[in-house]
Amino acid sequence: MKSRLLRHPVIAFYGLLLLLTWPVMLVAGDSTLTYVVVAVLGPSTCALIVTGVTGGRAAVLSLLKRLTIRRVPVWVWLYAVMGNGLLITAPAVIVVLLGQPGGLDAHWEAWAVTLAVNLVLLLIVPGMVEEIGWRGFGLPLVQERSGPIVASVVIGVLWAVWHYPLWIAQNDGVTPALIWATIGVVGASFAYTWLHNASFGSVLPAIVLHAGENAWRGNALRLLTGDEHDHAFIAAQVAAAVIALVLVIATRGRLGMVDRGSGDGRPRRLRP
Predict the structure, then answer these.
(1) Per-residue DSSP letters for the chain?
(2) What are the residue ranges spanned by the domains of the chain?
(3) CA 1/CA 102 separation, integer angstroms
(4) Can you tell me the distance from the alpha carbon of 33 to that of 24, in angstroms, rounded to the nearest whole number?
(5) For residues 83-105, average pLDDT
(6) Tens digit of pLDDT for each residue in 55-81?
(7) How many angstroms separate the CA atoms of 270 and 272, rounded?
(8) pLDDT digit string, tens, across residues 213-248
(9) 64: nearest Cα among 188, 204, 252, 251
(10) Separation between Cα atoms, residue 153 and residue 186, nearest integer Å
(11) Are 133 and 141 in contact (CB under 8 A)?
């Protein structure tokens, strides 16, 4: 059993995640129970379980230690808090303005408070309860074998598909929004890979990016546009895909990774 997990740890992690969370998602839908189960048994918990089974206490401590890596460039934190959020939200706002000039519901004080509060709250849920799994556990393993571009796509697809039951419940069935959301999540995954590599494998920037992105394009965006699931929503997903393309071109496909590293989840950067 352990040897099989060692050969396919990401598959084991994802299978456990679906087993523990999908039944509740499918039955309870967009409910408090679903969010509680996701918080308790979500990607981070499943990653720690699989890590513990395959590598023992030392491996679990090694994974958790990457939450405390502090040698991270300042620009990484700035991008994590504002980069994806601004770059994804701005096109959505522009689309609304072009469609109906003056159409923004610009309650700026409420918007600013909502953005700040959500940024703090989302550091825990979903940032902390997901990113130890996605970027802390899954990304380094796939990236070590297949490189950053394939890893970004694979983790992005797994990340998106895991949300399907919840998204279907929120939209009262399978709608085109499911396709657009998948495009947006896979596109956003490239920025997570980039920051992960640029911060020497630290999980903290991914947690902050997750919180920042959700804070900007969640309730804060709805306060501005009132159109989260129509043109503004589509514009935001397309923007995420464009960011991915720009990152691939700008980094020549490396996404911040200079060489393969030592396999411990911390990409090594060659010194000039």
Answers:
(1) -HHHHHHSHHHHHHHHHHHHHHHHHHHH-SSHHHHHHHHHHSHHHHHHHHHHHHHHHHHHHHHHHTTS-----HHHHHIIIIIHHHHHHHHHHHHHHHHSTT-----HHHHHHHHHHHHHHTIIIIIIHHHIIIIIIIHHHHHHHH-HHHHHHHHHHHHHHHHHHHHHHHTTS--HHHHHHHHHHHHHHHHHHHHHHHTTT-SHHHHHHHHHHHHHHTHHHHHHHS-TTTHHHHHHHHHHHHHHHHHHHHTTT-TT--S-TTSSS-------
(2) 71-250
(3) 61
(4) 8
(5) 78
(6) 999 999 999 999 877 778 899 999 999
(7) 6
(8) 888 877 777 777 765 557 888 999 999 999 999 999
(9) 204
(10) 6
(11) no
| Count of CB atoms situated within 10 Å of the CB of 241 | 17
Confidence (pLDDT) at 222 = 72
pLDDT of 268 > 60? The answer is: no
Residue type, 156: G
